[in-house]
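Appendix B, Record 12. Input sequence as logged:
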Amino acid sequence: MSSRRVLLHVGTPKTGTSHLQDVLFRNRTTLRDRGVNYPGLRFDAHFLGALDLMRMPWGGLEKDAVGAWDKLAGSARSWSGTTIISHEILAAATPEQARRARESLGDAEVHVVLSVRDLARQIPAEWQENIKHRHVLGYGAFLRRIQDPARTDRTANWFWGVQDVPAILDRWAEGLPSEHVHLITVPLPGAPRDELWRRFSTAFGLDGIALEATTQRANPSLGAPETALIRKINRRFNKLVEPADYRPLVRELLAHQTLAARTHSPRLALPPDAHPWARALDQQWADEIRARGYDVVGDLDELLGGPPIEEYVDPDRPRPRLVTDAALDAIGALLQENARLRQSEISLQTAVAAARKETNPVRRVAEAIVHTLQGHPLGRVALGAYRKLRGRPPVT
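Logged structural output:
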């Protein structure tokens, strides 16, 4: 039996995966010292690997993904201990793609890990994620499409591809012993804040390893009026904003950094009349998982979810005042970003002027770089770190 072990974490989306991957990436040196390999030199290496494995187009990023899966698999084959590969879009892999992934790992002992959450929380989260990726489909239409038993619509096909728990396990766990398949249930609201991380740590064998678990990357949720606002922006401006500009401006600045902070807004939820259908499906899945004998970290009863929300707000018909309030916050964020960019431009112009006065060409370039870095918050951090390494006090 090979001493090498590979843990393939293949989803599902919206189950704390961004936090997990951020912690693993930032602690990869510590992990390697303890025999755990989280391969990749960039934070999105596993995302690119998934795109490569599945030959999936993704706004042009697939060009950067060529060969990415083979790099992950090669790292796993050359590592003598445990390797973790994690990305949630792997849930949508076909049986052939999943088989190729397992075979690419050589003679390693392969384990499949799947984090799961009840449909009452997954359905609105998945629709919101679509909206944050430039989609314009209304919530009601989205619900009708995914409830169609045929599942032939493109929206439904993707949703069930990454959310149908037994089907995902059919594809990824083919031929594996049941003890090599691990399910992590997402705790219900009200559980301790660190409970999900504790379960991840147990499933991945990270207990006893001192890791910095404070997240720097996250995929926060929006309220109903905030999601409605992003959808309105998509409908009005999708043709004007290129995908490369949409992500930093709309998805990151407006959605994640600004609107996600409005935590007192009505939450996005599953309509009460859809709960019986979702709960029946969750129960069917839980029963099937028990029958298969997989390792469960958590409690399968959590897969049934909680009761319907008491005051449901339809994001297709939000209260105008709440959307207006969210829009004002969004405008404020854009104004601040414009001011920051203008200040950066002024700093760059100052750097160029200073560089032109310098006669030494090498020092001229260095002065321009320093002036530019000092004009940006992240640049000042990088400059301070560099001076600290060189033994010079940082400029404040």
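The beta strands are 5-9, 36-37, 82-86, 109-116, 181-185, 295-297.
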